[in-house]
Amino acid sequence: MSYYHHFVIPFTAGLLFLVIVVAAKWIIWIKGLNNQQKRQVKGNIFTKKSLLATWEVLAESLFHRKVFKKNFLLGYMHMSLALGWFLLIAMGNLETRIFTHGQLNPPYVPIFFEFFEHDLSTLRYKEIFTFVMDFLLLFVLSGVALAYFKRATSKPLGMKQATKHAFVDKLALTSLWLIFPLRLAAESVTAGLYGTGGFFTRWLGEAIAPLPAIDMLYYPLWWAYSLSLGLFFISVPFTRYMHIPTETLLIFLRKYGIKETEKHTSYTQVELNACSRCGICIDSCQLSSELGISSSQSTYFLKSLRDKKATDYLTETCMLCGRCDYSCPVGIENSTIRLNQRRESPATGTSFGYVPAIEASKGKIAFFAGCMGQLTPSVTRATLALFDAADVEYTHIDKDATICCGRPLQVNGEENAARELAQKNKQLIEGTGAEALVTTCPICARIFAESYELSIPVYHHTQFLYQLAASGQLKLAPSNNLITYHDPCELGRGLGVYDEPRELLKFAGNLVEVKSSKTNSLCCGGSLAITSINQQQRNQMARKTLQSIGANDVDFVATACPLCKKTFTAASDENAILDISEILVKAFANTKQSSKPEQKQTAKETSTVN
Amino acid sequence: MIDFGFTPFAAGVTDLDKANLSLAKQITEHEPSFNLCISCGSCSATCTAGQFTKFSFRVMCHQIRKGNTTLAIEEASKCMLCGKCTLICPRNVNTRNIIRLVRKAQTTTP
Amino acid sequence: MTKTVAIIGGGVAGLETAKQLNSLGYSVKLFEKSNTLGGHVAKWDRLFPNKRHASEVVSSLTLSQGNTQTLVGTTVSSIKRQHGNFIISANSNNHEADAVVLATGFELFPAEKKEEYGYGLFENVITSADLEQMFIKHGKPAMASGHKPVRIAFIHCVGSRDEKVNRPYCSKVCCVTAVKQAIEVKEAIPNCEVFCFYMDLRMFGPGYEDLYKEAQSKGVTFIRGRLSESSEIEGGRVQIKAEDTLASTPLKMSVDIVVLMVGMSPQLDTSKLAADLGLSLNADGFIAATDLHTNPTETTTKGVFVTGACTGPNNITDTVNAAKATALDVHNYLSR
Lengths: 610, 110, 336
What we know:
Structural class of chain C: alpha/beta
CATH topology of the largest domain in chain C: FAD/NAD(P)-binding domain
Radius of gyration of chain C: 21 Å
Shape of chain A: elongated
Number of domains of chain C: 2
Number of helices of chain C: 7
Strand order of the largest sheet of chain C: 5-2-1-9-20
Number of helices of chain A: 31
Distance between the termini of chain C: 14 Å
Oligomer: heterotrimer
Number of domains of chain A: 4
Order of helices and strands of chain C: EHEEEHEEEEEEEHEHEHEEEEEEHEH
Strand content of chain C: 25-35%
Number of strands of chain A: 8
CATH class of the largest domain in chain C: Alpha Beta
Radius of gyration of chain A: 31 Å
Strand content of chain A: under 5%
Strand order of the largest sheet of chain A: 2-1-3-4
Number of strands of chain C: 20
Largest sheet of chain A: 4 strands, parallel
CATH architecture of the largest domain in chain C: 3-Layer(bba) Sandwich
Largest sheet of chain C: 5 strands, parallel
Shape of chain C: elongated
Structural class of chain A: mainly alpha
């Protein structure tokens, strides 16, 4: 038995084209990986990581777990389209296979089976199949309906802004939206004419059968169905729908441990193509929500990079706060890609030949306050007072002269210039013979940890002080103060330090946990990674961020970054903004207060001795 | 280094009839706060680079306003972008953006 | 029946308004939240431009009050309009008045907010108000350790002309106050070096320029540059950094005492009362009058008048003038 009709050509040609292009792209991307990445693939492909990746592909590409977390309706829309379509294909194949007794059919047969076979009386489980196929079609159509609805208004689906798409994307979208309604129409007309179909197509077919000239629609509808499929398949490599096959590859590569490096690699191409341009990153971006800058978010930036049209505006209009990295349902490393693109832009000519070699006295712990630390002497003073209280032997290595850590240059893409400063600082740090480096500035901490390649561990002061407090070396007594904590971007999303600051604050008072915290915390607005926004805009963001952490309902707003502290202070007169160390100094003073009588006694004794 | 063929400071006289103010115009267009400086000098005083070398953000801006572009571009290369000046400028001049614009002028001017 | 006017604030502005309305025959109630009259001026030692003792001005104003009912230690918590009158709630008592004058003045800029200057952190960083107290108590400044200072720096514009602390405006009186204090330091400790770090010297009033000249002739050094940051060094001394903008070179020096010339900030309590009464604030946070030029004492709420430094930074002379004008406007309003 062989099934064929000319109308299957658009579908078959489209599918063939898609398969060839996707295969070619996959091969090119995988071959383009650097040696380290290739080793990671080879070393992990035959391990359980591949199984885990398969599971994740199911969870993300079919069930869209992360999108569900963002919004139920949005998740349902994606799931019904992806899972529904997948099951339609799978069930269709199974149905045809069983009907043709295991015969290997061309791919178009199961797709157009209703056209080819009007008499399914010999099909085993016929009732189940026809029911399931109709049910799945309805399931997909419910998603399509939601998609229509989302175009009209995206708010109920949890998105304030939807991505503005290019023409080809709209064309592909139209063909995608037509596929399932056309299938329904073609199958219903067929059911009306020949008595095929399941509960729904049969009912619909019978309902429309009496209409005049319905049989004239029979061939045109099957043609249209096939054409819409073919058109969609051909459009995939040129549009955002490329994310569907690419995300699968991305999940596998990621499971093998591959990450963005400091340069674009072929893995970057996989990430760029895996972006579905859903636009969830737009809502998570404060430039959009606070300042109305809604044209530079990752969705647009990645697209421009994919098209090799990244402009300075797109590359630079980003705070690198990392919020979109965490909101992205595909988990694309947006910030790193943006930073790497900045690294690609031509060096603007820096000359630091004037920087002398700086030396500091030796000590067990090297303490670095950073440039910002000079403008927040209270933080430095408090931290060092706590070191003294815990008998830490330290050397304050940038007390007299300091150079920048290089991170501000790095985030602006001036990698070589940053390295030059890093080299000088590295000599300074290693010259002290210290066992660990502690800094009060998360900006410095990040580059120390990620790019300096130091032989000693790097701690942010909250991490270090937590060790001291937890081990009892630093004694603290809490007060009844209510404290809210703001996660600095570089410390939280940047270095993954969320718990130590919170645990420390519990030693000092009552920590109030808020909704927008940890990975979901807002940027204070002070970001050094963007230069094009002005102070008024930064203040505006800062006030919103203070509001989001309930600043007005607590005694102290705690942060752990001198830049956040400065930014908040500039924006607000009403709130007491303190670094964690300053709050801890109060908690340390509390321990003295409770042992005051004892102290008085010693004072008396001394006076009698005198 | 780019020779603009004219250095007002060399002659010891600033001649605003002949000065090339194109960079000043370009910067003002992209960063209007360029014009808000009151020459208080706190940027230069706090400057991380200024501890080690003769670099003053304030003077650099001044040179640009007088058309002494070549010197200004050379000066801008010394900045570490650390951001201290942005944090203390009492007029909210977006200093880091100005440095970036001056540096870009270097790579784009013929 | 005698009409009653409530005046909120017992500083120079409130006292002068009370005096004038009292002599016009009104029943005047003066509310002062602290226990003494005279406001900030009462905490000052001597006044520019003639170094007259501030206590003279305060006592001349308090002694000429006549029948004014002064309620010290009385904090006004709310003012409500009722049938064309006003109900003033203070210390849980209600007072009735036909008109209200807000003479609540200013508060000193909280210098801790300028963290990089080290106030509240470094013991020898003080404010201009702290220095006046030293003059009142000891006749001369001293380091926290009790040592005699040999080098003092005055920092102008702390909490003025600074958008980083939301005070973009000029506080008008700090320049001349710094110059006055610099001279006083020189007179009290002749061998003490005195430096003034300024951005512009705004010597706009009668006798101010003469004071500037006197300071120069007494050896006060003026450096055109704003302080960027300070740090504490050995012996509690303070190292400060600025740019000598006239020489275009960075400058650092160590001094025994840093005096921060704190500016005038809007009163937070006043903003609350203003909100109660539906008054609008100007961009700097002070109370806005209906017309800056031709009607500087009336507000958008009928029967509520403003005077003195609650409308913006002011010196004593201008405040007294404003108070007299306010009294006349209140009189015109009540005799309509």
